[in-house]
Amino acid sequence: MSIQRVSSKWTKTNVILPNPSLSAYVPETRLYAMEHLNEMLAVYGTVYIKPDNGTYGKGVMRAERLTEPLPPTEEGIIGERTWYILRYEVETHTFENLEDLHKAVSHRIRKRPYLIQRGIPLLHHETCPFDLRVLTQMNLRKQWETTLIIGRVAAPDKVVTNHHSGGTVRFFNELVAPYLDVKEAVRLEQKLSKMGERVAWQLQKRYPRLREIGLDIGLDQQIYPWILEVNTRPAIKVFSSLPNKSLYHKIFRYAVGYGRYTASTGKPARTKKKA
């Protein structure tokens, strides 16, 4: 039986939200509209605008709302200047009003469905933001098991951390060491492992043939974990370069067990079209 895939970020978000043990970790997410853009920028200051169906960070944009006080008028009235910044790939554009920002975004997304997500101020490794990939798989006992937590550091000036966008892989302990002591890091790792398993279990209730997920987690300045995205076709072979070969062999063995790869050739098995 083929593995089930779910491409819509909006669908996956709405499957996760009813679970109270997970909803607190999901940043506010809405379908893209100018009204939603205005409201969320007013509340959060920064939002990410991402395609509902997309991979490798392609098409992701970051919008920011900035303000500064104006000199007082002769009547003593203090006003405020507001402007907006849009970043995508390595480009940055500035707009004096929301309408022009919306026009620029609309030009890029055209008629494709897009989402707006609360921007999380991510922790940095040196000068670049990073997030974490939590790989959770169906093990050989047909139980969900988190097999890997790895970090991804964004390339300079990029708004996403994906490897395909120039991001680099770093070990979990290396990234959190400046922020947590050893015991705190162990507790966070355990928490993220359980979170991956809970998300997989929640999604599997709707999609019974789901067998693997890649959970993208962002840590904010308070080391609070936010579920940024869930990938139902996570990268696996990219981890073959890890020094711990036994860990990769376990990950690959599980993937063979649930039918992503064939044992004889190591090549991908055929899977059902995405939902």
From TrEMBL:
InterPro entries, alphabetized: YheC/D (IPR026838)
Superkingdom: Bacteria
Protein name, entry field: Endospore coat-associated protein
A Pfam family matched in the record: ATPgrasp_YheCD
